[in-house]
């Protein structure tokens, strides 16, 4: 048998122990993969690419965007849920993340258990965009018209169970109206039917609606947030007529559960620094988006509240995925 000195034994044992934190690989040491759970060119993708180009500068590493669209965002989310929790595969998702658990009860992942909410990035209000078939110019006029003609006003959204559909359902239940939901597969088709008078209105993100405001008889009569929307001066919030009403589209960053808190904190700090950039803030404002950073526990609580809020509405209204 080989005899090992006390000093040699201590050296051997030390070599088997984990390296001190200072000696471990600094994060990030290589490019970060950002999975966007919606298609290229859409509102979520556009905001993600703007924000994370600036975040990459702060991190000192490229952030490579990968679009994994489909099934209401669940394909991309599932891919990230199954990834290694090392901070190099992240998820950029939106309000659908909190809607899907109630809309699709057989999800392949658990939205609460399988993800670490890193930070909410921006919020974008939905808007009520009316066309020539619906003559209302204010929310009180729309409510009065809908009550006078129950079931006759039609409203498009980007699909059953979408944030915009639920905004309409919340409006109906709060106002006591019966505006009929008409799901569309894509926004351009809905906008064409709105212009032609085949539908009365659309609940849309501000991002999609801003270019159409006051064009070809189209007009935004209200938004679903609380404060003013810079690109829609003079357009009031629905809450001014229906107190407490709110339906925000939001974008957030998630990591796989088990990701070290220090990495999540580093990412949240990089996002905070990026969102302070005046140039980025101006470009986001052009899209109707407002920086709405929430990190760590605050974002986790927000996501939980969103899951509960929309889950109750989906169950009460009997909404099922199309």
From TrEMBL:
Pfam families: TctC (PF03401). InterPro entries: BUG, Bug_dom1. Residues 1-23 form the signal peptide. Keywords: Signal. It comes from the Bacteria. Coiled coil: none annotated. Belongs to the UPF0065 (bug) family. This is Tripartite tricarboxylate transporter substrate binding protein.
